[in-house]
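Forum: Protein Structure Q&A
Topic: Joint prediction for protein chains with partners

I've read a bunch of threads here and the consensus seems to be that you should model interacting components together rather than docking separate models afterwards. I'd like to see that in practice. Below is the full input, 674 residues plus whatever partners are listed. Could one of the regulars post the assembled result?
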Amino acid sequence: MTMSGRTDAGDRSVETLGEVSERDALRRILPLLPASRTTLIGPGDDAAVLAAPDGRYVVTTDMMVHGPDFRLAWSTPYDLGWKAAATNLSDVAAMGAVPTGLVVAIAAPADTPVADLEEIARGLADACRRLAPGCGVVGGDLSVSTVLTFAVTAFGDLEGRAPVLRSGARVGDVVAVSGPLGRAAAGLRLLFDHAVDADGEPDRARFESVLAAYPEPVTAQLRPQPPISDGPLAAIAGATAMLDLSDGLALDARRVAEASGVAIDLDPSLLGDDPATALSGGEDHGLLATFPPGTALPGGFRIVGRVVEGAGILAGGRPFDGLGGWDPYLQWDGNAG
Amino acid sequence: MTMSGRTDAGDRSVETLGEVSERDALRRILPLLPASRTTLIGPGDDAAVLAAPDGRYVVTTDMMVHGPDFRLAWSTPYDLGWKAAATNLSDVAAMGAVPTGLVVAIAAPADTPVADLEEIARGLADACRRLAPGCGVVGGDLSVSTVLTFAVTAFGDLEGRAPVLRSGARVGDVVAVSGPLGRAAAGLRLLFDHAVDADGEPDRARFESVLAAYPEPVTAQLRPQPPISDGPLAAIAGATAMLDLSDGLALDARRVAEASGVAIDLDPSLLGDDPATALSGGEDHGLLATFPPGTALPGGFRIVGRVVEGAGILAGGRPFDGLGGWDPYLQWDGNAG
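Posted by a regular:
Agreed with the consensus. Here's the joint model:
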């Protein structure tokens, strides 16, 4: 099976990466990718040159590996390109910066159809255009591997502002989030419960049924739409601390509390229909921020709690030890599919 | 066998990545890594913030994958960290920039000893300190994968100068190189000829003999020492074009010739004892640059040819079609070891 779920064994009409050179593959992908508005020298030389208008730039990097991070029966190549971009853009936004550029390194099996790589590029491109207009792909690398692997590094512009760190929350601040809570985790649970065959292996046909029945959580898992523009808006509004919600509200709020030397009291009545999943579910890639009391919250931010004296996390005023989160070393079962 | 070539099956005293959390692994690695002189906000938040003193920054990314790019019977974890840094630093230097920072994403099998990861970090650190003092690791990511994979993105500072592109060579310029030619390829040939067992599989014991007999070429392959500081020196001296010698002199010179709309005539008498390997051998990661005639060549640069009218590559005035180079999609045989 190829990355796009087709069975192409023996189909000579499908051109694969193993049949074209790295240079030819790049020639077909590069035109699909948007340029960055900060590009001074783009792809094609030893390195790109980007503008840093205020003399600083924000940098983050993240890998996505077939098996622990995605299943090819569930994600299309387009989805993978989209998610690889979206999750990195979210880390840039969580500093209060505007995403400006990405470099994308992909290692793919030699039997990967070139058309799948083009779909990855389209996913990367659309995520940039939709989530962070003006951000583009400024460079990359293509390698061969038996395991499909993405490594994206993203850049951003603070536009003269101070970065918003995890360590700035103060007692009395309100705690707010932008973006859904627990929806991506709900989607993943639906996939593992219902989009598998009798042996528990990811199954494309059953996936289509699950997607049709539960489009919102499944799409939140496979093609997240983080509220990127809310990151700079939060910084402008005076956010005292901020981070990307990658490991679930409880664990990520605990990080802010630890870094800031405070406690965070989350209000379960503000966490929707399923507070347990909202607290523990990861991969939403929304934003968690703290603001001084009385701040008019920008964009999609809504209050979910407040900063209090102490340490760790409370839920409705009582100590909360649930963690959530996902550790690839401790938790991956070794399966791919 | 672990990454360091030891056989640890059943040895409970060896702590592996699968037994510690990603966070604990990072806590052990980060203190080993040098800081960057441009770091404003270092690792630990959603993203790092780096200074770009002249309002621009140079960016390049490169992947190294177990199998096509290295063999664990030949490279130690320290070697891998060193090479992952060195090859990226070289791309920054080839723009005429001073390397300032790296972000490093590593995907490793769950049974990788944490001690091997620490050795990778020491290799990264020493390559930065020795080849590009002031450059440090500003961020990273750890993932699990069945295939050991490195993705490094490197940054640099042009210090107010124009970047040196591939496209600036002019008829009459001299063509010069810094660093060895063909030595890394000679090392790789020795390894494949003599550091394998009867079945052709990479073998650690035979490797030790080859390393002892031929330390220079083997070390050039496994732990290259690109002349990083010669990149900025070439820019200051007025280099008209420059690039990193990653795919062999002939192929890389052809890239300069194509981008510049000129021909390059290489002089085999200036290419050492083995001109054929000097022309075709890749992975030296030295620098190829063109300079206006009469330029006092800086650092380790020495003349190997001149820029003439026409297209493509000549050797001693006659058309040269040998290519060299290495294309992972077309040339990897699928073996690891």
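The two ends of chain B are 10 Å apart (CA to CA).
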